[in-house]
Write a structure and sequence with these properties.
Length: about 160
């Protein structure tokens, strides 16, 4: 015997499962397209990212949703910003374009950790000077907090 309430809960659970499957499919397709455009084989990317070939294949086919750590490893293997994959996977919110932010994220001579630290410093200066309210500071502040949660606290001098 099922009530209307039970039926509605089942529908919302089904919707959540479908949304998660769609998100996994989207990030998988994106990773696959990035890998193909970089002319990197599945095996090469798996080796670069430090994940197994079958696991990477499952991610690309949307059967698995990777963690933030795995996305970071894949980003390094693809030589793209981890932030791009985080946004695509729904871990971070997209924010308006910023020439300084874009230049930092595109710089391949510094590590992801260094990029995160520079972005945090840049955002803190913008907030301190009041520029944060005028453009992308509000969303950037929230993202910095998410990034800080994934990394060690910065050293204070």
């Amino acid at each position: 015997m099922t009530s209307e309430h039970d039926h509605q809960d089942g529908q919302s659970e089904t919707g959540t499962v479908e949304a998660m499957a769609t998100a996994a499919q989207d990030i998988g397709e994106f990773i696959r397209s990035q890998r193909l455009s970089a002319k990197v084989s599945l095996r090469q990317l798996a080796e670069r990212a430090g994940v197994s070939n079958p696991y990477l294949s499952q991610i690309e086919r949307g059967l698995r949703k990777p963690s933030a750590d795995v996305l970071s490893q894949i980003a390094k293997g693809l030589r793209v910003s981890a932030e791009v994959l985080y946004v695509r996977a729904g871990i971070l919110e997209a924010r308006p374009a910023s020439p300084v932010r874009d230049a930092l994220l595109a710089d391949s001579s510094i590590s992801e950790r260094q990029k995160q630290m520079l972005l945090e410093i840049y955002d803190s200066f913008r907030r301190e000077n009041g520029a944060g309210e005028q453009s992308d500071g509000a969303s950037a502040a929230g993202t910095v907090d998410v990034l800080r949660a994934d990394s060690a606290e910065p050293a204070r001098d």
